[in-house]
Amino acid sequence: MLGSLFLVFTLLMGGAVATPATESRESIEAAAYHVKEMVHRQTTGTIASVFPPDSEHAGHPFALMEYHAPCFPAPALTMLLMPIALSTRNILANSSHPATYTISEKVPFDPSPMSQARVAFIGNITVMKYENIPEDELEIMEKCFTWYHPDAKSWIPYQSQHPFNSFWAKFQPSDIYYVGGFGDSHYIGHIPIDLYTKVGEGVKSSDHWSDRNVPSLRIQN
User: Fold this and answer.
1) Domain range holding 159?
2) CB within 8 A of 216, min separation 6: which ones?
3) Strand pairing partners for 167?
4) Which of 43, 68, 141, 182 could lock onto 77 through a cystine, CB 3.0 to 4.6 A?
């Protein structure tokens, strides 16, 4: 009885009622493909770290904006980090360099941001030592990253024209968690790394990321 009254009240108030998933609901394969598109289209996200034990905020999470670029083969992401950044210091304070990186889709004029896709990559950061990066790969990485982020030319590592200390880093996800929007029509849950890595291979279309003239995707390390 109470359930029926609630349903009537909700409908009268113009509210939405959740319904069971239908065949039109986003599949896990479609979600994986969507994430790969987001990684190429939305290259500004949020990196989350945890304050180390010797900090006054020990154990507390800390999250702030960061750039990435898809210069490595999936699932890895390329990052250009600065030791002065608090996020970077938190990450480097842990021997395994753990971090979580999130990206949110930006849809103009969407009345509800909660209906937009967002994804979290859970993994670890690998510091790429400058002297260990082959010269040809270094050139590709610089061109790739600055293609996505032209302003980053001002803090490319080991450039004499800027005062910033920075370094290249590879973010290697070990898990992916995706929220496509509302659960009645979008996938919500973990996406296997192997599925994400393979999805979209061999696909060619006018708007596919591999058709872009980007000096990337050739770095194999």
Assistant:
1) 22-199
2) 69, 70, 71, 140, 143, 144, 147
3) 81
4) 68
Q: Does residue 100 form part of some domain?
A: yes
Tally of domains within the chain: 1
Burial of 134 (0-12, 13-18, 19+ CB in 10 A): exposed
Mean pLDDT per 10-residue interval, the chain, length 221 residues: 38 39 80 95 97 97 97 95 96 97 88 91 95 90 94 85 84 98 92 95 51 52 47
Q: What is the DSSP letter of 61?
A: E
pLDDT value, residue 12: 39
- The gap between the terminal CA atoms of the chain, to the nearest Å, is 62
- Whichever domain contains 37, its CATH number is 2.30.110.10
Q: What backbone phi and psi angles, to 5 degrees, belong to 195?
A: -65, -45
- Residue 144 falls inside a structural domain: yes
Q: Flag whether 212 is in a domain.
A: no
- Whether 221 is covered by a domain: the verdict is no
- What is d(CA 68, CA 148) in angstroms, rounded to the nearest whole number? 9
Helix (H) or strand (E) holding 28: helix 28-41
pLDDT digits 0-9 by tens, 23-34: 589 999 999 999
The tokens for 167 are: 């370094």
Q: Which residues pair with 103 in a beta bridge?
A: 119
